[in-house]
Write a structure and sequence with these properties.
The protein has about 90 residues and is of the alpha+beta class. It is about 40% helix and about 10% strand.
């Protein structure tokens, strides 16, 4: 197994997790084997590529907007309340 090629592919896939967070768990698993990859790890990375090819319509889209409002939700009361909505304005 060519370790350099495997590391390049895994690095590219890790970069993709920015817009495709649904592959983050799988990338965490196969990135553990970057120092000594085996053929099975290469096949897993290829499976992720096949998955991405089949789901091109999914993912996060980052668009530019003049009116930017960032919203978040957090449950920081440890279940004392149902959660609190946190609004941020930049």
């Amino acid at each position: 197994m060519d370790g350099t090629l495997f590391r390049q592919l895994v690095g590219s896939l890790i970069y993709l997790t920015t817009s495709r967070p649904n592959i983050t768990f799988a990338m965490g698993i196969i990135s553990k084997f970057m120092t000594t990859p085996k053929q099975s790890h290469w096949m897993a990375a290829k499976w992720i590529l096949k998955y991405l090819r089949g789901t091109l319509q999914y993912g996060l889209e980052f668009v530019h907007s003049e009116e930017f409002r960032l919203q978040g939700y957090a449950d920081f009361d440890w279940a004392e309340r149902t959660g609190s909505r946190v609004d941020f304005e930049l």
